[in-house]
Amino acid sequence: MFQIECPYCGARDEREFHFGGEGHLVRPGESVDDESWAQYLYFRDNPKGVHFEQWCHRFGCGTWFNIARDTVTHEILRVYPITDSRPERKSA
Ligand SMILES: [Zn+2]
C-alpha cells in the first residue's frame, strides 16, 4: 500500500485511486497494418524501474493524471497532468 499525491486533493491512500495502465499510448491512425494495431492493443512496457502510468482519483475528484513510478520500490517520482508529454526516464 502506498500514498499517491493527487494534483488537486493532495496525498491520499492508494485505495482511492484506479490504475489506468501505461501512460502516453497513442492510438494509431485508420490505415495502420495489423502488426502495428496488435502492438497498440496488446503489448505494454514492463520495465524494472521507472514506469509511466495513468491513474484516476476515483473516490475523490475523479481526475485522470500521470505518474512516474519506480516498479521496484513503488516510489512515485513525479505526478503530472494527463496532457503533459512523457518526461525522460532519468529526470522522472
Ligand atoms: Zn483528487
CATH architecture: 2-Layer Sandwich
Helix content: under 10%
Give the N-to-C terminal Cα separation.
21 Å
Count the domains: 1
How would you spell out the order of helices and strands?
Answer: EEEHEEE
How many strand elements? 6
How would you characterize the largest beta sheet? 4 strands, antiparallel
Q: DSSP helix count?
A: 1
Mean pLDDT: 93
* CATH T-level topology: Folate-binding fold
Structural class: mainly beta
Which keywords apply here?
single chain; 92 residues; mainly beta; Folate-binding fold; 4-stranded antiparallel beta sheet; two-stranded antiparallel ribbon; 1 helix; 6 strands; 10% helix; 36% strand; globular; binds zinc ion
Explain how this protein is built:
The structure is a single chain. The chain is mainly beta and 92 residues long. The protein has one domain: Folate-binding fold (2-Layer Sandwich). It is 10% helix and 36% strand. It is built from 1 helix and 6 strands, in the order βββαβββ. The two termini are 21 Å apart.
